[in-house]
């Protein structure tokens, strides 16, 4: 038997799971094909497998709750991230005495980072990050981007911006490229707006960008608080090997997300946050939704978020399908 198959089987619990005579290799090929289009095929596969019990549903409810919460944070995060980008840009134009509207779109992120930079560069002599003469470290010809780089660092709570995520040649004009510096290192290179960023990216932005403090009533720096707790919810959901959530955990997750969305400083009077609170309440009480509706919504949400689509689906299906050994 191939060890790859053992690995998959070991993750699956004894709970009733859809059985398949597919091997994991067959499955991987298949998933690559469906990611391109027909989510409906995957949907039918899972729903017809009749694999839901209550704790599966709880996981999906919580997953939807994090998505709804993310939507509720839109005004705040757009306002703060746009504000930071504008603040940095104007302060540079002012400090350097540049003509209003001066821009630079010539510097790649690589040009602004010394070789080696911890966490990015491989071998100093044969660096895979600075791998061409166009990407070598050099000063910005307009004297803008190096200052931008430094300022982004000064807004980061832990002074560790995720340079790998961002395209510096857009910093002067695109606030989301600045916002992505405050998100986790993996999975955000290809996202380009609030809408295609996931809950985890948004919560990390709020934690890591010190400017979000002015829209929150509690001290973000003092843990625990609802932001760190919300981040933990996302992690627990993503890392749950069998995608199950107990009733107690569900209640506590919903209560945390509710507290975040009703924070008095900004969110309590913000219409997108209020809508999210209503959605959370409906979600928590809703007992009438069918399995098919839950799965359908889940896949629609995953599809709408570009980030790690394949990985999310893989994790989801690995936990719900029992694979057969190839030998
Ligand atoms: Zn390098
Ligand atoms: Zn530049």
Give a structural overview:
With 327 residues, the chain is mainly alpha-helical. It is built from 14 helices and 2 strands. Strands 1-2 form a two-stranded parallel sheet. Helix 2 packs across helix 14, helix 4 packs parallel to helix 13 and helix 9 packs antiparallel against helix 10. The longest helix is centred in the first third of the chain and has 22 residues. It is globular and about 60 Å long. The N and C termini lie close together (6 Å).
List the helices and strands and how they pair.
Layout: H1 3-11, E1 18-19, H2 24-36, H3 39-48, H4 54-72, H5 74-95, H6 109-112, H7 145-155, H8 175-179, H9 199-208, H10 226-239, H11 247-261, H12 271-285, H13 291-304, H14 309-320, E2 321-322
Helix pairs in contact: 2-14, 3-13, 4-10, 4-11, 4-12, 4-13, 5-7, 9-10, 10-11, 11-12
Residues 104, 106-107, 140, 142, 144-145 line the site of one zinc ion.
Keywords for this entry:
1% strand; two-stranded parallel sheet; binds zinc ion; 14 helices; disordered N terminus; 327 residues
What's the helix count?
14
Bound molecules: zinc ion
Oligomer: single chain
Assess the beta-strand content as a share of residues: under 5%
Helix residue percentage: 40-55%
Based on DSSP secondary structure assignment, what is the total number of beta strands? 2
Sketch the major β-sheet. Answer: 2 strands, parallel
Question: What is the overall silhouette?
Answer: globular
Order of helices and strands: HEHHHHHHHHHHHHHE
Give the averaged pLDDT, no decimals.
82
Category from helices, strands and their pairing: mainly alpha
Low-confidence stretches: 1-16
Describe the strand arrangement of the main beta sheet, using strand numbers.
1-2
Any idea what the radius of gyration is? 22 Å
What is the terminal-to-terminal distance? 6 Å
